[in-house]
Specification:
mainly alpha; elongated
Length: 218
């Protein structure tokens, strides 16, 4: 095995460790959010004039898992952003390191802004539009479908609002030209991870867009 192959495997090992730390952080954040999930649930349904229906005992757990999962994602983003930055840091010049360190708080802030935009603007707009079309029907919301719809109207905007920060750091890493093998390999790995992750996320949420046709008018 040549030296370049050993370096590449070493970088993959470092990436694996950082991913494991991020996953562990997500699990801790999920457990923390699950402690307060009932309070969050009551806040999210405060404007409804009736209780949401469930079709089976497991629906309650599934709804709580969805709510806690979104909260855990929001809490884990700073950790994930930090480890991404630390992984790509050797591939950047000192000036670029100082510039991209703002990626950590920016990613978190943009995600929260995107979630807020979806929840306070897009979600009530689309829900009101759909309710206006259901006047000839007896409407009954199930908890699972209600919160699935809410997540589809909010979480994609959190990911989309992150794209400026992601694109900036990805360009810094992907376009970085250096003769050092470690820098080139880490930059390529980061660029590939960004491209694959956000391409998959965008394709996944676009697939769900059939549930929200009024978005085409926004």
């Amino acid at each position: 095995m040549n030296h370049n192959s050993q370096d590449f495997i070493g970088h993959l090992e470092e990436l694996r460790k950082r991913l494991m730390v991020t996953l562990f952080s997500f699990l801790l954040a999920f457990a923390f959010c699950f402690i307060f999930v009932k309070d969050v649930y009551r806040f999210l349904v405060r404007d409804l004039d009736h209780k949401l229906a469930i079709l089976g005992p497991s629906d309650v757990v599934w709804v709580y898992f969805m709510i806690a999962g979104v909260g855990a994602i929001a809490l884990t983003i700073p950790v994930a952003a930090y480890h991404i930055w630390r992984f790509v840091k050797p591939a950047l010049r000192e000036r670029e390191q100082k510039a991209t360190v703002m990626f950590i708080p920016a990613l978190t802030l943009l995600f929260l802004v995107g979630i807020s935009f979806g929840y306070f603007i897009i979600y009530p707009m689309v829900l009101g539009f759909l309710n206006s079309m259901s006047g000839d029907f007896e409407t009954m919301y199930t908890a699972e479908r209600y919160f699935t719809f809410m997540i589809h109207m909010t979480l994609p905007f959190g990911l989309l609002f992150e794209m400026p920060a992601v694109s900036y750091v990805s360009d810094q890493a992907g376009d970085r030209k250096s003769n050092a093998p470690r820098q080139d390999e880490e930059a390529g790995l980061l660029h590939s991870c960004y491209s694959s992750h956000y391409h998959h996320s965008a394709r996944h949420h676009v697939g769900h867009s059939r549930h929200s046709p009024p978005l085409c008018f926004v």
